[in-house]
Amino acid sequence: MLETGVKLFNYFRFFSRENRIFLTMKNIRSILFWSIISAAFIGPGTVTTAAKAGSSFGLDLLWALTFSILGTVVLQEAAARLSIVSGKNIGEILSSGKDRKWGQLILIFLSVAFGCAAYQAGNMLGAVAGLNLFTDVSVRVGTVVIFVIGFSLLWTSNFKLITSLLGAIVAIMGFAFIYTALKSDVSALEFTSKAVIPSFPGDSDLLLIGLIGTTIVPYNIFLGNGIKHGQELRQMRIGLIIAIIIGGIISMSIMVVGTQVSGEFSFVNLAETLRSKGGSFIGSMFGLGLAAAGLSSSITSPLAAAITAKSTFNDSRNLWDEKTIRFKSVWISVMLIGLVMGLSGLKVIPVIIAAQAINGLLLPVIACYLLIIVNRTDLMGAFKNGIWLNLISLFIIGICFFVGTNNIFGALSKIAGDPRINNLVQLKLVIAVIGVAIMAWVIIKKNGAKTLTK
């Protein structure tokens, strides 16, 4: 009886007002911190893809976003868990040992940096497109404004400030898109069923793969693995998972908003449709959401490139600390590339196509390498992957192979001017299956059959 009383006392003491507030504030700070991942994957590309999917196919592709969020949670949790448990990031592990694999290190960094730089102009112009929906700011002035805001924040090297502000931007973006989505005619029952039941409408394959590819992004793995946070495992998981789910809800809301478009899809057309149905305020809210998405990605993209450089090249001398000129030179370069492309009117499509092809190669490679690392007992100890997590990860890696192959084939198709190249679905599936089989074999060889069979 006394023991039961003590347990009850401890239980209620744990949930006392003081502890509850402390735990809640701690978790809120963690959610705000990890909103940097949501801010990174909800950019103009995601807004465009999700809204166009809604415009073209209603909510039939909503389930793809559900899967994408699951995949993002699994990969980002593994990357953050690796950092907390081992105290190392991916680049440090790759460069450890007697022989530093400089060729691989440089190739990985250049691939990530090129992708970040290629998308930066689109991020900045996407933010300006959002501003233009409710202001009269010119493209040149808007691009400079976005550049100055991003540059000023990154120059502080205060990641607590940056992540908190990005969390606030995600909150504004979320409010704008969710508020707009709630004004639509979509019922809760339809939304729920479409979110969990897969469907494959005709001619939807490119948008389907695009929804996954704009959410599961390779440089975000380096971002989540390399950024300093000082959190414990449990706190990280709470903040990371909730932040990514919130990001997923925002992406889903964008698709719901896209269902309201009548006629050919464009941001202007979508905003006008929303204004005609719900007034000027809703149209302005959509513009605010698009501007917030572009601004957040304009900050996270250069930051991800710099963190990848630090993860790849840093050593005991700590020459790549966040406040060093080396670290700053990377994100400044990405910011300047975006600014020049935005101001000059250069066609960024060929560059983005090349970036898609590179990211298509990089995504499955990084995902595979991450899975191998988090199965290493010497690094992860009791916190290495379990059987079910390995099986889920292999399935996600299979999708990564498929998405990556599709990006490569899509780039080749545009370069060759032959759309048939991108229609080789069976070949893409074969490559994905072979990739998963090789990964399963590597894990079993390194850790034993029990990692997948018991």
Automatic annotation (TrEMBL):
It is found in: Membrane. One of its GO terms (molecular function) is cadmium ion transmembrane transporter activity. GO terms for biological process: iron ion transmembrane transport. It holds the Pfam family Nramp. Its main location: membrane. The chain crosses the membrane at residues 21-42, 62-84, 105-131, 137-155, 162-182, 206-226, 238-261, 281-308, 329-346, 352-374, 386-404, 424-444. It is a multi-pass membrane protein. GO terms for cellular component: plasma membrane. It comes from the Bacteria. Keywords: Membrane, Symport, Transmembrane, Transmembrane helix, Transport. InterPro entries: NRAMP_fam. NCBIfam families: Nramp_1. This is Manganese transporter. It comes from Portibacter lacus. The gene is mntH.
